[in-house]
Backbone:
């Protein structure tokens, strides 16, 4: 039976792929759970229009990301946080907190998953931060000061 997958399914395929699988698996599991639909000519047409719509949205999202990354390149972001006498922060700064602070200070929306830090930052001082996305990599300076 030919089906169109509505979600990524391990060992079967990715979203919006057309697959030929056994009738029982499709009728008893995938279709009732809303993971797939039968590949009728009407469903295939809807799939094509949905793919075009998603490609257009993805392209717009990627262009906006590239614009935001180019504006972020070389910017300095300053964060004030609680620290002890030795310069260690009481709580480490994660990529989510950094992305939130970037948005507050520059009004640029950056997805936290694009911020490249190995571990949460736990020290005062200047930290170069790399942001990778849409095939482009930029760096900005993060200055952490004691409150």
Residues:
């Amino acid at each position: 039976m030919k089906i169109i997958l509505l979600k990524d399914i391990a060992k079967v395929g990715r979203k919006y792929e057309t697959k030929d699988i056994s009738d029982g698996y499709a009728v008893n599991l995938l279709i009732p759970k809303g993971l797939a639909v039968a590949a009728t000519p009407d469903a295939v047409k809807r799939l094509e229009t949905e793919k075009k719509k998603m490609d257009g949205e993805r392209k717009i999202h990627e262009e906006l990301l590239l614009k935001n990354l180019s504006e972020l390149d070389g910017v300095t972001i300053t964060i004030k946080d609680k620290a002890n006498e030795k310069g260690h922060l009481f709580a480490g700064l994660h990529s989510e907190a950094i992305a939130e602070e970037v948005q507050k200070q520059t009004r640029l929306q950056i997805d936290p998953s694009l911020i490249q830090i190995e571990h949460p930052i736990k020290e005062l001082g200047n930290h170069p931060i790399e942001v990778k996305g849409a095939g482009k990599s930029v760096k900005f300076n993060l200055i952490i000061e004691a409150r």
Observations:
- The CA atoms of residues 103 and 109 lie 6 Å apart.
- The chain has three helices and nine strands.
